[in-house]
Amino acid sequence: MSEGTTVAVQDRIDEVEAPLRRVFREYGLPRIHWFAVAVAMNLVARLSALVPALVLGTAIDAVFNETGAYDLPLVPASWIPNQPEAQFWFSVSLIVAAFVLTAVCTWAQGITSDVFAHRSLHAVRVDTFRRMQELDMAFFDEQETGEAMSILNQDATNLERFLDQALKNGTRLIIMVLAIGGLLLWINWQLALVTLVAVPVMALFTWWFSRTVAPRYDAVRSSIGDLNTRLENSIGGMQLVKTANTEEFETERVEEASWNFYTTNIDVLKIAFVYRPGMRMLAGLSFATTFIVGGLWLFSGPPLFFSGELTVGNFVVFIFMTQRFIDPLAQISNIIDWTENARASGKRIFGLMDTPVRIEDDPDAVELDAVDGEVAYDDVAFSYDGEETILRDVSFDADAGDTVAYVGPTGAGKSTAVKLLMRLYDVDEGAISVDGHDIRDVTVGSLRESIGYVSQETYLFDGTVAENIRYGEFDASREEIEEAAKAAEAHEFITDLSDGYDTQVGERGARLSGGQRQRISIARTVLQDPDILILDEATSAVDTETEVLIQRSLDRLAADRTTFVIAHRLSTVTDAETILVLEDGRVVERGTHQELLEEDGLYANLWAVQAGEIDDLPDEFVDRARGDS
Ligand SMILES: Nc1ncnc2c1ncn2[C@@H]1O[C@H](COP(=O)(O)OP(=O)(O)OP(=O)(O)O)[C@@H](O)[C@H]1O
User: What is the ipTM of this complex?
Assistant: First the structure.
């Protein structure tokens, strides 16, 4: 038995490892030059931001108190003037220059890190969307639209915030901790140890937080997907909601999904409520201890086990620097927040990207061109879930130009049979061939290009009538579009619309009637001029008058090409070369209309009911259609 078409995206999500490393490797590395410039600018900006405090401390001791020599790290002694007044102005110039440098570099760093993040995410979003389109229909059967939208929108945005904010602040943090830590140790290593003792404690606390919060973020991401699905479903079905008077019911369902989102968020916040103030407290403690020890040192010499000298200038630098050192440390909570959120989102994005594409071109696939339209099904069997067989032993040959009709009770597998021809799903057993080529040996693109599909569920894109007819044949001229519309009996109503072919159809064609939408979709197929045509209950959604119009255009469309018709109304298929009667996934009768009437089986019974010759189907057929048998 085959594994069926089930696409378990959730399983893939669970299997994704180190998603952020992967984002960086696959999307960050190709744009690493932007990141490198951002890091360099960050480095210069952060280091130059330390200069004013350092210069101030030195100036206090050397210029004002005259208790120390004027020397600065990395500044050659020959540059430093000897006179106190000159030293004062030298200090002022350094401080101003440092401020300007910090501002310029911060600006440059902001731009480059934004460009890096947004370009990387643009690529992630487009790749994810492309991948999603490559997945077979089973993915779209199972995946809710809202969930897919939330992966493309929110999850991508979370990654963007990681690449932008988290990396920017993360590098800033590393630079600050290393630079200031080093500087403090250089100025007075003993007092520096007092300040730095907070670092390992904060690191441990952060490690605990990120481990505890990670699974909770997975739940948040999943609950927002559910909420989006709920909203998308309710808004998409607004007509039904209104006519069924179920606004309250829908509100309750949205409320439930929204509440679930709230509770998952609160689960994260419960931990964050401990962590964030905890980090602030540790930061405050570190600052206060440094201040107390340093203050006592200045008043009455080194306290406790400390030794050596601490000048006023040193103390001022320490207080400034400790503040600058502690602030980014306390910001770790935000970085962790962004990172964990992005990690959960990255798993969902890569889970989708890792979902295998099962219907794709064989490496040796050939283009299917100049198609005659011979179609053969050879012992085809298929199941959607790997368990319940939907089609079995389906075999027939259709010559080029033939019309093959599928008839039979609802759920017999008629639509499934034609979907297999378009490779929306692959057969489990047997084979389908076009012009003698197994459809798995030709490119999916060329196969689908040679098939036109008109179904009862027409889908129009938001845009004009002309754009919808041209969809897929983007080079078509206005004349060709109008010719196609005329052949589809649509030209007249289109010219009566307010803007003719330039009339906006509204979302999903909402401003048009069902029959009008149907004729636009037929015009699209006329323009496509396919070699093989599939009409899946193409006239079922319209009134009798429109049906006559549509049927006329369909007959014209079907005239010279191999056509598959699925019809409940048997009067529309009496001319078919072959009628296949499907029941429970098997072909139970086959032949022309006349032959099948003579056979006096299921088809003859269905015909008799539709022709009004008998009032009802025999009970056994009704039971079977109900699924009682
Ligand atoms: N995407 C799907 N996933 C799982 N099962 C499906 C899917 N589509 C159809 N089925 C099942 O396959 C069986 C055949 O469905 P199909 O749409 O081919 O029948 P049909 O003969 O075209 O019915 P109808 O005349 O009502 O359109 C049904 O039992 C249906 O529930």
Answer: 0.96
